[in-house]
Amino acid sequence: MTMKSPDAEADNRSEPLLEVRDLSKEYIQRGRLSRAKNTVNAMAGVSLKIRRGSTVAIVGASGSGKSTLARCIALLEQPTRGEIIFEGRDLLALSTRELFRIRRSIQLIFQDPTSALDPRLSAAELIAEPLVIQRIGTKEERQAKAREAMERVGLPASCENKRPLEFSGGQRQRIAIARALVLEPALLILDEALSSLDLANQESILSLLSELQGACGITYVHISHDLRSVSEFADEIAVMHTGRIVEQKRAAELVASAEHAHTQELLAAMRTVESICAERRAKGLV
Predict the structure, then answer these.
(1) Which of 142, 176, 179, 181 is the most exposed, fewest CB within 10 Å of its CB?
(2) Whole-model pTM?
């Protein structure tokens, strides 16, 4: 086996794992009482580069286009135009067979694990299901990988036969993370994956994600409306507004010197929440 030099490995990490070029998504709406059609631009001309092993947060209010961007990157939506370059290949130009193979490298975790997980399946079955779909391994090998993934996200193997509704909300999100990790993806997209959790669970999941990134080198795209929750977790933050990225900087730089008016509004909201939390802690309420 040929070993890569440290310089070659550094060059590989500096190259973007994912590059989105001029990506747009339009939806056609029909009137209820007429045949008139209306075009809605959910996303317009979005360009973005994400380095391998980094975390980029996409932040914006509801309707800003951030979840549309996530679904397009995960190939759950077909963009109207643009390019999605992943590991040097344009995903939108690949055949159905090629896309099937590459889907294991790009995984998406949804906001609500309760609705995303089949309540009829056990935790182990849910985690092993992507391996079944991708036709990876024998039944015994899939079961072993599912147990390993459970332990990696902090769930004891003794819980493998429990159904989703027997777990807490934070534990269900850990099952969703394990289900994504079992395919060993290069890119993990978190679409508001923390918004349904309380503050303690959010911090616990963020700590887990940081550990996994350090151990596995996963690249994260973190979609959120909450600038506070991502400001310390992300390497870079891109702010979306009306379907466009209006500002993108290193996380610390953006928090210190936001330029766009919408970013400044998000920062003001973040500081209001922080002051309320600090006041509640001072009163011993949290």
Answers:
(1) 142
(2) 0.84
